[in-house]
Structure formats: C-alpha cells, structure tokens
Design brief:
By secondary structure, the protein is α+β, with helices and mostly antiparallel strands. It has helices at about 15-35, 40-60, 65-70, 90-100, 125-135, 135-140; strands at about 80-90, 110-115, 120, 145-150, 155-165, 170-175, 180-185, 195-200. It folds into 2 domains: about 10-60, no CATH class; about 80-200, OB fold (Dihydrolipoamide Acetyltransferase, E2P) (Beta Barrel), CATH 2.40.50. β6 (about 170-175) and β7 form a beta hairpin. The structure holds zinc ion (ZN). Zinc ion binds near residues 178, 179 and 191.
C-alpha cells in the first residue's frame, strides 16, 4: 500500500517555495528595515530630531541681545568702547575735581582715564593697565584707549592703546629689537632681559 501523502513530509516543491516566500520575505524586508533604522547614527538623529522638535516648540522666544548675558556663564557680557583722554592717578583726580582727600596710601593705588568730556573711569590693572603705572611717558600722552567695560562694573579693561598726535594716530606698545617681540609694559625684555623701547606705529 502506498504511503499516504498527508502522513509523510513531502520534499519541498515549487508551491512550497512560493508559500515560504510569501510568508517570510516581507518579514525579512521588515527586519532589514528595522535593522537599518536601529543603526546608532540613524537612531541618534531620529531621537535628536524628536527632542529638538519638542524643545524648540516649547522654548520661549529670546531676544538675541540677551544671549551672552544669560546663556554663557564663561563669557560675561561687555561692551567695547573708545575713550579719549589722559590716564591719571584716581586719587589725584578725585582731589582736583571733587575735593575728595583720600588717605596717603591711596595715592597711587588706582589708575583712571579722565576723558575729554570730564568722566573718570577707573582702569583695571592687568599688564596693559600696569604699563601706565610704570611709564610716566604714557600718562603724558593724549590717548585713545580701546576698552572693554563689563556689564555691572565701572572698571574699564584696556585692549589697545593709541597716541593721538598732530601727525595722526599711533598704536603704542614696547618692542625688543634683539628678540623682535612686542610687550605691553616697560620692563627688561622678557626674553633676553635687554632694554626695550616704546614703539609707536601708525594706526590702521
Ligand atoms: Zn629681547
């Protein structure tokens, strides 16, 4: 008696291949797509896009001008200004202008720029500021100082020093001929220890 076909597994014929294909190929394609979408780069991009969409949608509009002040704690906000005048000892100017007599030890404590319009603006004494303490010639110059004034601070930080003369405007610093390097204050050259010279170059 021939075996019943239904009781024994048959060798896969064309119809079986077709049904296998129908059943598994869509699954395989879906799996491939899923796998592709789950690649780290794609997944991160999709996640970022989704998060960004929510964040941007909910974030209140902020004027661009406030971003430096509020968003970046490492970079406090400041304005850059050009001040024309002379650098003076603050104590001397307070006495001369307002009869404020300070104690003797305050005499050479602070420097300020006395502007042409009569404002007294104290100067931060970083290396550029100290240049005015060390060299009387700088305090005798009619100057234009490019300064930074930080929000909520009265103190100006010197960025550039220009001398205003009949011949024009000159950028001022110090120069060592031997080492060909510039410095911001009068001292022995920080490289070869030789004397350095006051340098004035026509301002661009
Ligand atoms: Zn030198």
């Amino acid at each position: 008696m021939p075996p019943n076909n239904r009781d024994y597994p048959r060798a896969p014929g064309p119809s079986h291949v077709l049904s296998f294909a129908k059943r598994y190929v869509p699954v395989t394609i879906t799996a491939q797509l899923t796998q592709r979408c789950l690649r780290p780069g794609v997944l991160v991009a999709v996640l970022c896009g989704t998060i960004a969409a929510f964040v941007w949608h909910d974030a209140p509009a902020e004027p661009p001008g406030n971003r430096v002040a509020t968003g970046q704690k490492s970079k406090p906000a400041y304005s850059t200004r050009s001040l024309r005048g002379r650098v003076v000892w603050l104590a001397e100017a307070l006495a001369r202008r307002f009869n404020i007599v300070q104690v003797p030890e305050a005499a050479r404590k602070s420097l300020a720029i006395e502007t042409r319009d009569g404002s007294l603006i104290p100067l931060a004494e970083d290396v550029r500021g100290r240049g005015f303490r060390r060299d009387l010639r700088l305090r005798k110059m009619d100057l234009e100082l490019m300064v930074r004034i930080y929000d909520r601070s009265p103190v100006a930080q010197i960025v550039r020093v220009y001398s205003l003369e009949k011949e024009g405007k000159f950028e001022v610093d110090y120069w060592c001929d031997i080492c060909a390097i510039a410095m911001y204050e009068l001292k022995p050259c920080e490289c070869c220890q030789a004397e350095i010279e006051l340098r004035k170059r026509p301002a661009r």
